[in-house]
Design a protein that fits this description.
This protein folds into two domains: about 270 residues, Fido-like domain (Fic-like fold, Orthogonal Bundle); about 80 residues, Orthogonal Bundle (Arc Repressor Mutant, subunit A), CATH 1.10.10. Helices cover about 60% and strands about 5% of the residues. The chain is mainly α. Strands 2-1-6 form a three-stranded antiparallel sheet, with no helix packed on it. It has a three-stranded antiparallel sheet with strand order 3-5-4, with helices on both faces. The chain is globular and about 65 Å long. α4 packs antiparallel against α5, α6 runs antiparallel to α7 and α7 packs antiparallel against α8.
Length: about 375
């Protein structure tokens, strides 16, 4: 296979991307996204959505890179403060969630997304401060070892293109175009520059999420395309590369890529809207059961904790609610007796699990089916 390198031109793209098919798909995507944005406020504690959905996105986004962990391992690891107690895959997934949270706090407080912000996100993600690539030799290969793409090799070129991308993200006047189209362009440009030695795919997906918040399309970073990408992985890489095959990509190649992303936004917004409705209904159901079961001991913090941490244990619940161990144990046993939680012994530890929430999140699909065939890996020559 030929080495598929390309000369990346700075943004903006200089031809019309708002074609009739794109405009039709935009209308559908925006309608679904607006519905999700409004519905998200039905959950009183934003930490529930950010934590619960971000952890699922962390698992799915990492899975694209063949970093695979089960929900059991992940939720157990999330209760540990000691990183040495976690498995390597779970640690990387939890780093992703932390990186997303760091990025969201920067965007929320400053209203911009700078190169330093992106570097901080990637540093948390891969636990390294290597920064942008400064050495040549980076290539993208498929599972057969064939080179499918060679990103820019000159460090000055990487920095120049990233500076241009920073301006494109933060300066609307550079291209007056629909922000969902811009998100598709930003994601493609970032992945093509491939600025880091490691973590480009995961960092790029975080940047795309944060751009939706930056553009005002969402208030919380809760629209995650990773499951859509997993399901359509071959198409994702084919369309990504299709734009690269020409110096600027043909209009048809850009249209196909943008339509792919817009369909993903619409599909994922529908799924996430249904999920938020399900979480809201499940919280109301638990509240109806727990109020009479716990009496005066009932508190909102307890209910919130069950959804922020689908796996919990006595010591953790005690810390969360600032109660004695025996009081936390009593609360948890009452919740098991009333069918709110399921008690499971794993090793020497009793875990109390919000099984109904896990079912709602669809965490049964932990087995990575056929990931290797479509995976593109970064290799330094």
């Amino acid at each position: 296979m030929d080495t598929l390198g390309c000369t990346i031109s700075p943004l903006p793209i200089d031809f019309d991307l708002e074609t009739k098919p794109v405009l039709l798909q935009l209308a559908s995507a925006h309608r679904r996204l607006a519905e999700l944005k409004g519905l998200a406020h039905s959950i009183p504690n934003e930490s529930i959505l950010i934590s619960t959905l971000a952890l699922q996105e962390a698992k799915d986004s990492s899975r694209i890179e063949n970093i695979v962990t089960t929900s059991d391992d992940l939720y157990q690891a999330a209760l540990h403060s000691n990183l040495d107690e976690m498995g390597a895959a779970a640690k990387e997934v939890l780093n992703y969630r932390q990186a997303l949270e760091v990025g969201f706090e920067h965007v929320k407080s400053s209203g911009i997304l700078t190169l330093n912000d992106i570097k901080k996100i990637q540093a948390v993600l891969v636990n390294s401060r290597a920064g942008f690539r400064t050495l040549p030799g980076t290539q993208l290969r498929n599972s057969k070892g064939e080179i499918v793409y060679t990103p820019p090799q000159d460090p000055a070129e990487v920095l120049r293109l990233m500076g241009n991308l920073e301006g494109y993200i933060n300066e609307p006047w550079l291209q007056t175009i629909d922000p969902l189209i811009k998100m598709a362009i930003i994601h493609h440009q970032f992945e093509s520059i491939h600025p880091f030695y490691d973590g480009n795919g995961r960092t790029g997906r975080i940047v795309a999420i944060l751009y939706l918040v930056l553009a005002g399309l969402l208030d919380l970073p809760i629209l995650y395309l990773s499951r859509y990408i997993i399901r359509t992985k071959s198409e994702y890489y084919r369309l990504l590369q299709g734009v690269r095959n020409d110096e600027r990509g043909s209009a048809a190649a850009w249209e196909a890529w943008i339509l792919y992303i817009l369909r993903g936004v619409e599909e994922t917004a529908i799924q996430t809207t249904n999920l938020v409705k399900g979480i809201s209904e499940l919280m109301a159901d638990f509240k109806r059961v727990l109020r009479p079961a716990l009496g005066k001991s009932y508190q909102h913090e307890l209910l919130n904790s069950l959804f922020i941490h689908p796996y919990t244990k006595i010591a953790f619940m005690g810390q969360e609610l600032n109660v004695l161990r025996k009081t936390a144990a009593k609360y948890l046993d009452i919740m098991v007796q009333n069918g709110v939680l399921t008690k499971r012994k794993i090793g020497h530890t009793n875990y109390y699990i919000n099984v109904r929430l896990l079912d709602l999140l669809g965490t049964g699909g932990d087995t990575p089916n056929g990931l290797e065939a479509d995976t593109v890996k970064t290799v330094r020559g």
